[in-house]
Amino acid sequence: MNERNVCIGDIVAIGSGDTSLLLQVSLPRQPCFKLNHRFELKNFAPNTWRSSRTGWYYRVLREGYVQAGDKIKVIERKWPQWTIERVQEYLHRQKDDDEMNEALAGVEELGKESRNAFKKRVEKSKEAEKRIAGTKWIDYRVTEKKKQTSRIQSFIFEAVDPSTEDTPQAGSHVKIRLGNGLVRAYSITHGSRGRFQLGIALDDQSRGGSRYLHEILKEGDIIQVGKTTAGIACIAPSTMASNHVFIVGGIGITAFLWLAEVMMSVNWAVQIHYAVRSGEDVPFRERLQEFGNRLVFYDKSKGERLRVEDVIKNMPWNSKIYVCGPQRLMEDVLETARAMSIPETEVHFEAFAADVGGDPFEVVVKNKDNAILKVKEEETLLEVLNREFGDVVGSSCEVGNCGTCKIRVTCGKVEHRGTALTEEDKQGEMLACVSRGVGRIVVEYEE
Questions:
Q1: 138-225 CATH fold
Q2: Interior CA angle at 101 toward 97 and 107, to 5°?
């Protein structure tokens, strides 16, 4: 018996006669972080579900006794398509597959813990569909799809209607609506009126976005695009800084490439420290070569390491730092900057993903007659406000980078997430897309 041949709802008999026990497979186990410490292995717990080797739970249908030598026999299998491994696939990896989420939400034998997670995703998807229906989407055609590396492709999109006025800026984001119904936000790597370029890596743990773009979308296809929005990096790139230092890992170069090019074109001092898996994993190579000695490569396959402490310690005076890449890189920069007493306003982070779930909380909306709303575990405050009052809070990146969704907090404690607010900002504001209230908070937004 293992996760590949045991199915949700399986009824097994253990032993025989009047003392036989009846059990039913209910849900996959969800090992917690304590296993990391128990076995002294880093990431032990998450690796159990990544490999689907978690084990499973039974519910007791008939009590009895178990002893060594008892035979275990499957006497009923209602859901042969839902092995423990396959449930883990949609529970942890392909979380945005609406069809599978709805199917699993309907499996009555699935334990509440897992089944409720699928039910919430179904509810969230339907709410998102309502919001999307009210969004103004513009048709764009894929005019170029180009392989940059073995895992990164670039895409050029042009508006079907040539009179489109939308013009992206360096450092801006764009939301695109894919043919599979998903909506994703990406950093623009170059653009002009009615035209923009993206660089996208195929994520090993893709939830449907990058996989769709890499494997299904082709030149000539039409997708829908929301209005491009400016990120903080292009709203207020510190003109008071004498130098602009970019610390980047992997696909993170797409967040700043165009911005760095614009800075260089107006003779701003620019330096890029770029860490990659190997020299074969560098996208937009020709554009990067234009930076000359302003660009420093760190090739992991050659044993080269980007040492954040050395980069920051040796920065020229009056430098502003821009960071994008793996979470561990951004945490390293944050810790190093704090240790060196570098003000938060001099460090800008761009993240590609964010943890938005957490404990439920209540929010009192001051400028809506003190209406009281509940934000569930897998909901964001942004989603709840826009669902209740009709797209009243704007958003762009939705991972806490840009600050578009910030709202005022007049009372209560907030668990701040994201990078768009300084410690001073956090005294009276929060990012509705990622941050969460603790207990009950009071907020208001600009109408």
A1: Elongation Factor Tu (Ef-tu); domain 3 (2.40.30)
A2: 150
The answer for residues whose C-beta is within 8 angstroms of residue 206's C-beta and 6 or more apart is none
Helix H or strand E segment including 187: strand 183-192
Q: CA dist 149 to 199, 201, 279, 300, 445, Å? A: 11, 9, 10, 16, 43
Sheet holding 319-324, edge to edge: 295-299, 269-276, 243-249, 319-324, 347-350
CATH number for 361-444: choose from 3.40.50.720, 2.60.40.780, 3.10.20.30, 1.10.10.10. 3.10.20.30
In the structure encoding, which two tokens stand for residue 336, read together?
């190093």
> What's the whole-model pTM score?
0.62
Strands 361-365, 436-444: pairing kind:
parallel
122-158 confidence digits (pLDDT tens):
887 777 666 655 567 899 999 999 999 999 999 999 9
